[in-house]
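RESIDUES AND SHAPES:
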Amino acid sequence: RFAEQQFMKSIHAEEAWDVTRGDSTVLIGISDAGMRTTHEDLVNSIAYNTKEIPNNKIDDDNNGYVDDYKGYNISFIADKTSEDSVFHPQENHGTKASGLVAATSNNGKGISGVAGKCRLVPIKTVPNNLRDVIYGYESLLYAVARGCKVVNCSWGNERQTYNVVEQSIVDYAISKDVALVVSAGNYGGINPCFPASYSGVLSVGETNPDGFLVGSSNYGSQCLITAPGEGALTTDHFSDDSYSGFAGTSSASPIVAGVVGLVRSKFPTLTAMQALEQVRVSSDDISSKNVNYQKLIPGFVNAKNAVTRKPFSTPAIRVLSYSMQKNSVKVTRAHVGDTVQLFLKAKNYLGKGTEMRFALSVGYSDISNVLEIIDSVVTIPAIQTNEEFVIAPFKVLVQSASTKRMVLRVDITGKGDPNEN
């Protein structure tokens, strides 16, 4: 049923597969409600832990998890099931995400997953009596122990604030070379959603196959790339040969996770963050299609570009944090009439850049009468690979009070080196 997977054409998957079909040593964790491991299009895509003897109640591979042969069920005690019983009797969310990532290709059945020969590690985070993710961050710890190179997290929460423990778990996973791909959220706005708003993840918004943002998708600073999740055909968990549509940023995220799997197969020396940035900077500009979100929408994932673009031919810069000064004194809040200097701490993950220009602007018209950018451009002669640096100073005047969330945009231009690989 590959012809029904319209999103594959949109992301140029077949052209990417001409370059790489993925690698079975690249393990992609599915942090979700679980998986129907007997499904005809998934049973041969699972990374079975052959170092573990199933159901003997011994941690044979000494990774800290007993009997994790088919994956791991973090809620096995509550479920009163075995540690690798990753099937949820009611919730099909995880099985759907799994099919988009790595349903078996060329088997004469069902669909194809984006990541080709990459292998799936199901991680069940939802107890059988619930429908919501309970053990999401615990799943990242298991993904590290299992050796996953990518983890897809099609879950999130807008009803919380920043949590330093959760961020530390994200940081730990990244430090162990795990690339985290997460859904941006389905609240249709710019308010923070977690883990999408945590530093170091690649957060994914949803479009239709033609690249138009879906109304329910989050956007703005917590959305770093988009993918055509709307109506994507995928595996279903109600029988071993069932398929159905999927939507939401939960559907967009595994499509991008599959592309990250292809990148980690093609460029195995890239770190987790470099692989995520390779996918992000290889995306297509869709701002002209989304005129209401032109300064708030990121690029549209392009699998072909991600596996053919030379990673170190250009920089890939992320803003890590910001700070403000008034009259050379650091402040945490600006008031009406204040002129403050804005300092952005950033990091370049990929190639060296020269003649770099950073232009600051307001993200949307609703705050154009609140903030006036006085000094909007900063130039830096050269930025090295893996360099952390400060973009400053921008100068901003606070014209009026507002309770709205402020979103600013930085457009980055400069020169890379096309001779660098």
Summary: The two ends are 37 Å apart (CA to CA).
